[in-house]
């Protein structure tokens, strides 16, 4: 696992997708539907984008995450309306399923990734001069670079 924050974000996206699907398909009170679908529409797309981009700054992550969701829904609604395909309930379910599958794939990849990619045995070699393990990305042994 590379980043526990990414895992928490992806789990949050999965939870929001599940709540949105339950609210649309299963119904419930008006307050539950409004809260779960609203949170899903605002937060889920942004959390996925921020997780994929791996932004280092927390404030930048927050701003990007909160802008992506509403902007994406406005673009989707505009295009779907012009094409005559806008049905709010089914659209929310389809988008929730697609984002949930993407979040699940990213979660599996995140959990299977080594903490440091250079610690993986495939990314190391033994230096011929010093008989020590050196990360491939560093290439510190002599003769690796001209004039080195």
- Residue-averaged pLDDT, rounded? 82
Strand percentage: under 5%
Measured as a percent range, the helix fraction is 55-70%
Q: How many structural domains can be distinguished in the coordinates?
A: 2
User: Main β-sheet: number of strands, strand sense, barrel status?
Assistant: 2 strands, antiparallel
Record field, number of beta strands: 2
C-alpha termini separation: 35 Å
SSE order: HHHHEE
Number of helices: 4
Strand order of the largest sheet: 1-2
- What gross morphology would you assign? globular
Structural class: mainly alpha
Low-confidence stretches: 144-148
Could you tell me the radius of gyration in angstroms? 22 Å
Transmembrane segments: 37-55, 62-86, 92-109
Keywords: Membrane, Transmembrane, Transmembrane helix
